[in-house]
């Protein structure tokens, strides 16, 4: 199983709780990706957000820079909000990153956007939420499946392409494209019908309850005639690894609290509850917070339900100190990953 991490960028905080420079968040993110590569992690995803606390607004740019400075780690978006971006530009940016990487280490995960700040930012209406995504996903797939640089495509939500060059092509012809979902049954069925791998973002509740969605995805793929290695599932979750469970809980909680306060202002969420946090941090909760043994055991437990081939954690939220982020990446690579491999080999 691939083990990895993902980030939206995390702006450091001053002692009074005010944010430091958002540029520092990007510098820290780049350093973390290089650290993850050196430590031996399999995957690092960069998600798209456009907020002061999470400023990684251009995953393709971050990934291209990391592609030039890493050697083995797979890099992907987690996710790219294609509903409000131009799929031509997304494809070009990731194809360039793929070339910089040497080929075969760059992926796109296409999302609709659970955070909707991109809609007013780029001048789109939430009334068109579903149609924008379907239309632009179709264009992205058309670009990726093209057999030459010249592409023809017509859709309702973007000017048509008539035998126009879209360059560069990926090194190996195509990029892996994943469909991201937070647990929508329709999205699981869509991914299966299109023959795309699916990535589940599980940030609350009991993760094993997503198993029926993974089953729906695989049934939909089979019914549409899609088989093979590209029919696969990944899981993104919140978590942090530390030498002890207590250290992990204490390190992650302040950032979790800060993030939930911010999301409360934006989305009307209730005041963060420490008891709710602690409940989610123990099985069968959604947070993978603990020492290497516990985190590995919980990943393998979920694999028994989901059959997923990649599990990756968002750790740097709400001003988590960079040293704790880097230590968690090291433990994930050197302690959690080998434990997961041993446990899966016994099952």
Structure description:
The protein is built from 11 helices and 12 strands. The mean pLDDT is 96. The longest helix is centred in the C-terminal third of the chain and has 25 residues, at 322-346. With 347 residues, the chain is α/β, with parallel strands linked by helices. It starts with a strand and ends with a helix. A hairpin with a 7-residue loop joins strand 6 and strand 7 (161-165). The strands form 2 sheets. It has an 8-stranded parallel beta barrel with strand order 1-2-3-5-8-9-10-12, surrounded by 8 helices.
Please report the distance between the alpha carbons of the first and last residues. 13 Å
Order of helices and strands, N to C? EHEHEEHEHHEEEHEHEHHEHEH
Beta-strand percent range:
15-25%
How can the largest sheet be summarized? 8 strands, parallel, barrel
The neighbouring-strand order within the major sheet is: 1-2-3-5-8-9-10-12
- How does the helix and strand content classify structurally? alpha/beta
Categorize the overall geometry: globular
Residue stretches low in confidence (pLDDT < 50, at least 5 long) are none
Mean pLDDT: 96
Query: Percent range for helical residues?
Result: 40-55%
> How large is the count of helical segments?
11
Nearest-angstrom radius of gyration? 19 Å
How many strand units? 12
Features:
347 residues, alpha/beta, eight-stranded parallel barrel, two-stranded antiparallel sheet, 11 helices, 12 strands, 46% helix
């Amino acid at each position: 199983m691939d083990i990895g991490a993902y980030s939206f960028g995390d702006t450091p905080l001053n002692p009074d709780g005010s944010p430091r420079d958002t540029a520092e968040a990007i510098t820290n993110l780049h350093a973390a990706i290089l650290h993850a590569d050196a430590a031996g992690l399999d995957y690092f995803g960069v998600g798209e957000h456009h907020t002061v606390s999470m400023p990684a607004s251009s995953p393709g740019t971050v990934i291209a820079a990391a592609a030039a400075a890493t050697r083995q780690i797979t890099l992907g978006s987690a996710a790219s909000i294609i509903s409000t971006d131009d799929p031509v530009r997304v494809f070009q940016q990731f194809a360039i990153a793929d070339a910089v990487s040497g080929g075969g280490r760059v992926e796109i995960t296409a999302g609709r956007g659970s955070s909707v700040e991109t809609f007013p930012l780029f001048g789109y209406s939430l009334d068109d939420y579903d149609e924008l995504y379907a239309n632009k996903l179709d264009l992205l797939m058309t670009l990726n499946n093209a057999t030459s640089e010249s592409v023809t495509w017509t859709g309702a939500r973007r000017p048509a392409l008539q035998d126009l060059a879209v360059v560069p092509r990926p090194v190996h012809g195509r990029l892996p494209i994943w469909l991201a979902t937070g647990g929508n049954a329709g999205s699981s069925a869509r991914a299966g019908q299109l023959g795309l791998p699916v990535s589940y973002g599980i940030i609350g509740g009991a993760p094993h309850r997503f198993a029926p969605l993974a089953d729906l995805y695989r049934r939909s793929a089979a019914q549409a005639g899609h088989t093979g290695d590209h029919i696969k599932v990944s899981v993104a979750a919140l978590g942090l690894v530390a030498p002890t469970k207590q250290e992990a809980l204490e390190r992650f909680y302040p950032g979790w609290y800060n993030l939930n306060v911010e999301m409360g202002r934006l989305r009307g969420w209730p005041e963060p509850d420490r008891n709710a946090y602690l409940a989610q941090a123990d099985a069968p909760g959604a947070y993978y917070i603990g020492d290497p043994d516990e985190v590995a055991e919980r990943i393998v437990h979920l694999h028994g339900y989901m059959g997923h081939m990649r599990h990756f954690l968002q750790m740097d939220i709400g001003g988590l100190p960079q040293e704790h982020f880097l230590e968690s990446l090291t433990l994930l690579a050197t302690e959690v990953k080998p434990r997961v491999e041993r446990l899966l080999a016994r099952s």
